[in-house]
Fold:
Amino acid sequence: MPLVTSKELMQNAERGGYAVGAFNAINMETAQAIIGAAEDEKSPLIMQITQTTMNYTEPEELVALVFALVEKSKVPIAVHLDHGRSFEICMRFLRFGFTSVMIDGSLHEDGKTPRSYEENIEITKKVVDAAHALGVSVEAELGRLGQIGAEIETGDPGKALTDPEQAKEFVDITGVDLLAVAIGTTHGLYRGTPTIVHDRLEAINKTVDVPLVMHGGTGVPDDAVVKAVQLGIRKINIDTQMRVAWYDATRKVIEETEKEFASLDELGQVRKYDIRKLLAPARQAVRDTVRERIRVFGSSGKA
Ligand code: G3H
Ligand code: ZN
Structure:
């Protein structure tokens, strides 16, 4: 099935009143699991590679692998750069053939220091002009998602939430196709249950006429997700939940293997190591996790 842009997926999602899951791939097994889950659910998909994965591997190898898998897929997929922090990184992923990029203009390239609103506008507009010339969709971010420990965790999300009027001005000036909004979520595992500020989301959705994106999807209760989709969230990012599934599956295999090896040792036999015995269950655990999220987002059967 041909590659699509995230904008095309968003238009269908808007018509259908559902959200499309956006899942981060970091290797062959996670990419296979994510696409497999979308095919299981006959769901459109946004396959993401986040900039920080470049600290682990040169992107070219992973990008080639992802495109090889996407080419064979039976569902429509947009291939998206997640949390691009600079114009240069976004251009590099445009050259790879990505059909969607995020310029995360809320933070400087260190991923910690906030950019000013004006700086966010400047870099976002620069990326939009280049990407749109190539027919590629652009996601931007307004408001502060940050990591655990941000204002949201102090129970005072007000400071970090996206302002509806500023969001409208930002979208009008930059021309972005999707907007990631701060509505009470943050990346990583929450201490306790996050509070999604749905009335702020509703206000933003009434003011802004592009699809809205929820980051920090892991750990948001299903009913809060469903309500957020009803109020205009059309793309939901998930990363940590897949990592937890991977770790849990791997830990289980290692525990079982150690028991097996202990009995073999008593019999004086050689331990039979097989890395695939670790990778296959982890891949399946990620696939099950992604399927379950897709069902909650409402995009099952929408491919
Ligand atoms: O951009 C990626 C997502 O925002 C990841 O959020 O790790 O909390 O699921 P999460
Ligand atoms: Zn994110």
Summary: The chain has a mean pLDDT of 93.
